[in-house]
Structures are given as C-alpha cells and as structure tokens.
Specification:
By secondary structure, the protein is mainly alpha-helical. It is built from six helices and two strands; from the N terminus they run αββααααα. The chain has helices at about 1-20, 45-55, 60, 95-105, 125-135, 140-155; strands at about 25-30, 35-40. Strands 1-2 form a two-stranded antiparallel ribbon. α4 (about 95-105) packs across α5. The chain is globular, with a radius of gyration of 16 Å. It starts with a helix and ends with a helix.
C-alpha cells in the first residue's frame, strides 16, 4: 500500500514538473515497448545537484559519479565499495523513493559504508542529487528505468 502511494506521489510530482515552464524537454528516447520517453531537464535543479554531489558524495562515488572500479567485489572490510551512479551500475534498477531512502538512511552496515545523509541534506538537496546523476544516464538506461517504473505502477 505504501509503495503504491509512493508511486502515486511520484507520478503526481512528474506531472507537475511537466507543467512547469522552467522544465525543458530533453531528447526523446525510443523504448523497448515503442513508447517515447521525454527526458525532462530542470537545468537549475541539475546544477544544484551537481554542487551538492561534489560537496558530499564525490569523495566516495567519484567526481563524475563513476564509483569504485571494483564496486562489484567485496572489499577487505567485507563490504561493497561505492558503485557508479552514472548509469553503468545498478542504481537505475531503483525507483526514486528507494534512491531517496538509501541516501537518507545509508546502506545496511553489513553491506556497505554509505552513511545516512538525512540529517545533513534536505529532501530538496537529495532530489537534486538524484536529478543530477540521472542526467548522466545514457538514453537507453533512462528508457529502461522508465519502463521499470511504469511496470511497477502497473501501466502498460
């Protein structure tokens, strides 16, 4: 029930974002199902996200969100190193609410060293960071992510 509510909130937020003049459509991406996906870029939000990322996240995830080269291998501490967030790892498998949750609360201590940022970053800063690293995703990755979100909402 909570997951469906979160998806409804996301859909509402996306609808509002589309309606705002400050948002500019990006390139259209042909998806596997044939539906066009228009990427929306709020340049101010993405720019702010880049600043927040560089100040807080780049030390672990890399200046360009490239992550640790060995992100798939458990390190000497028994935990996974920071993954790329630029569309070359698994972050695109997660919905925005899940990404927010990971950023706010960190990773489980037995899995990784991602700290909780919920007390340091505002919700707006977290959303800006997500918007920034999603802007780095190749069109095919973004289209696949979008299709996963539609399937999770039960849309065709």
């Amino acid at each position: 029930m909570i997951l469906r509510l979160n998806h409804l909130l996301i859909l509402t937020a996306i609808t509002v974002l589309y309606a705002c003049d400050q948002f500019q459509p990006g390139p259209t991406v042909e998806t596997r199902t044939g539906a066009d996906v228009k990427r929306v870029y709020d340049h101010e939000l993405i720019s702010h996200g880049a600043e927040v990322f560089r100040a807080n996240c780049a030390v672990c995830h890399g200046a360009n969100a490239e992550g640790d080269a060995n992100w798939r291998k458990i390190g000497p501490d028994g935990k996974y190193p920071p993954p790329p967030l630029n569309g070359t790892a698994h972050e695109w498998h997660h919905s925005i609410p899940v990404l927010r949750e990971i950023i706010k609360n960190g990773t489980p201590p037995e899995e990784g060293n991602m700290p909780a940022w919920g007390q340091k970053l505002t919700d707006q800063e977290i959303d800006a960071v997500i918007a920034w690293f999603q802007s780095l995703w190749p069109d095919q990755i973004y289209a696949a992510w979008n299709e996963m979100q539609e399937r999770a909402r039960g849309e065709p």
